[in-house]
Design goal:
121 residues, alpha+beta, SH3 type barrels, two-stranded antiparallel sheet, globular
């Protein structure tokens, strides 16, 4: 999980993202409320969260590059949140594959890359 400034949030603000494909720098947003296609990120398994939250697996795929990501992390304004702030639990990585695979916003090739990245080496 990272906490960059998110210009795509409504309104734009710092927002937690989960990297779903590190080689491509692809991310999904974390929300404080459940939406269709979301999975639970419990506070019990993710100590950085201040409450139970939701990984929006059917949400917009955020694509960035190293330079833009560094700029967004700098822009959010809190130095201790400029790197990786936490990792999602292994059980959540496995649970995310199903909803991501059914996302109406992602191409089949994109879904396969994300599923492989979530499975790990």
């Amino acid at each position: 999980m990272i906490w960059p400034y998110d210009p795509g949030a409504n309104p734009p603000k710092p927002k937690l993202w989960v990297c779903v494909e590190p080689e491509q720098l692809w991310f999904l947003r974390i929300n404080s409320v459940s939406r269709p296609g979301s999975i639970l990120l419990s506070r019990a398994l993710h100590s950085f969260l201040d409450r139970d939250s939701w990984l929006h697996c059917h949400g917009e795929l955020i694509e960035t590059d190293d330079h833009e990501l560094a700029t967004l992390l700098e822009r959010q304004g809190i130095p201790e949140r400029r790197g990786v702030v936490d990792l999602i639990a292994p059980s959540v990585r496995g649970a995310a594959a199903g909803p991501i695979g059914r996302s109406p916003l992602l191409a089949r090739t994109t879904i396969r890359r994300i599923e492989a990245a979530l499975r790990g080496p």
